[in-house]
């Protein structure tokens, strides 16, 4: 009995060890992977054209001048579906493409006008995609072309796209970080339509694709974020310019930091650096019509003074600057709301969601007609509160002592 | 019956692990699809229901503190009727309990982490572990639960804390929009997955706890811990992902872990977090299997349950490979069949026995004779 047990245990042990030592089925060795860092989808002749930027690990780390090969390569394939195109890529790629480290996903304008939902389902369903990459729409260029541009500083262009989107989102606020989950939520929500950052290629694209682009101090062709793309559900219907984009972001309440100016009494400008913002949207019912209160509070410092005769030691001067800035921001916000209401006619601000939160019962009744009937004529009350906290490292500007 | 004694603390921990079990993986999605942003309220309501059910279950057990549920039904229903009921109960429990949970872990691995691995590989390995654990007995299971519980808590709390910065309170608003009936529905699904299967504990614990008069208290504490963990995971899913994304994903808890990103530095740790549900799922399957094996040994009057573990475990692993033909079938099963089934065996069955007990108490002499003759 004991012996038989022992033998059985040994056999069991052997089996388990054999099973475990063979490791997992899905093992992927690093040298068998093509790590995709950027991807783009273009809509060409009723077909998807998928372009994938793959990092070449050896080139990223190699010393300067060691090799003439680029740090990344681009594979392009076409297909009736994106998944097919991705697999078709194995015809030209020596390795299977691995999407878990994707940083940026681009779609061109034609794709966006056709509708992005079809593209997004694959990204949401496939297990290789993680929810931490950003999405953007290429403006005036195809995604394929945008992914071909060589970039200085960040050798892998997709990393440059990822980082500069993050930085400009944080400190300039005209472009905007959007992840897959947020975009899908925007598409499916009835009270808010999505927006995506636009991406342009400036300068000569032909040079941009060439190594010449990164050889000199002056970079002839750059990848630049510009404006926001306005969507109705999943279809692109228009663009916001830089000023409107910043107003939009302020209404959405996710601006971290930005810069703006007010004009002085006598010629010149005072620049204010905004450090913190907070926005509260609150719906209310007036004669059974929805209305919306937008309360924006900002905090900032005086960034620079470009005019004389301003007594910054006097609290009333500061108050005056605050009032000027409040008026200006109010104007910007009202402008962008008005523009979207008349031009685009879709609620990208999430006013519907705000109203939904405050009046869930009424919302049920008006939900279906929100875009067509209520949003375009929605009365909004914008109130801005700007608080200037500091004046930088100096008090009064030396411009006051300037004798002309 | 095996001669084992476990302490009250071990009972609490084992209960908590059993309760969290597979619910941590499958519960948030289903509840969010029913109650939308109010799923967290539903989980609290569910906990309320759950404790009512627990009271019924343990009220019964406290009348006969040293007899387990199966002996009890033989005693109260008569020997043969009791045995038939027990057999029916164990077979259905076997098909609805451990086999599907084992399938769940295989499915999770093949969907999220190893899509090209055959599901058999994962199920057999995990099944082997369960067989090993059950064979070694309740004492070993309880001690390993004691050892692994701090790890589970560490992972769970670190996940919750790391996610705090991504919480969006708007996701939970407006509160109570969906109305009462979806919340009740979601609460019932919560109870049927988390609390009702606790009937299994009535087979496992009686006679195996060193202070049997306080077992029910330890179980309540364990259920409270487990319920709170589930409530937190549901609330986090809603607050971080939003009700739509939670409902759309098969495993929102895993997506939650994917969302952890502290300063682009502490990220991509979802595979570590997945250890959390490996631990709880192991105890869920093990306790199910343990209860079923000692149940069978009792029905067939086998003194030692250990020889039964290997064949039952083997059958379980085989069955769990094909128990669900596809993923939507599983969702359908959980929604339509598992609920009524668990209400029957987890609530109505003990309630029926309890009523029978009171009836017998009223006419003690007569009923004893009739039970002998049955």
From TrEMBL, chain A:
Keyword Chaperone set for record: no
Keyword hit for Membrane: yes
Signal peptide residues on this chain, from the entry's feature table: none
InterPro entries, sorted: GerAC_N, Spore_GerAC-like, Spore_GerAC-like_C, Spore_GerAC_C_sf
All copies of domain Spore germination GerAC-like C-terminal, residue ranges: 226-392
GO cellular component annotations of the record: membrane
GO biological process, one term: spore germination
UniProt main location, coarse: membrane
Keywords: Germination, Lipoprotein, Membrane, Palmitate, Signal
Segments forming domain Spore germination protein N-terminal: 26-197
Protein topology in the membrane: Lipid-anchor
Subcellular location(s) per record: Membrane
PANTHER family: SPORE GERMINATION PROTEIN B3
Family: Belongs to the GerABKC lipoprotein family.
Protein's UniProt name: Spore gernimation protein GerC
Annotated organism of origin: Paenibacillus solani
The organism's taxonomic lineage, starting at the top: Bacteria, Bacillati, Bacillota, Bacilli, Bacillales
UniProtKB/TrEMBL annotation, chain B:
A GO-annotated cellular component: membrane
Keywords: Germination, Membrane, Transmembrane, Transmembrane helix, Transport
GO biological process, one term: spore germination
Transmembrane segments: 12-33, 39-60, 80-99, 119-138, 147-167, 187-206, 218-241, 274-296, 308-325, 337-359
Keyword Nucleus: no
Membrane topology summary: Multi-pass membrane protein
Primary location: membrane
Gene3D superfamilies: Amino acid/polyamine transporter I (1.20.1740.10)
Subcellular location: Membrane
Domain of life: Bacteria
PANTHER family: SPORE GERMINATION PROTEIN A2 (PTHR34975)
Protein name, per record: Spore gernimation protein
Organism: Paenibacillus solani
Lineage: Bacteria, Bacillati, Bacillota, Bacilli, Bacillales
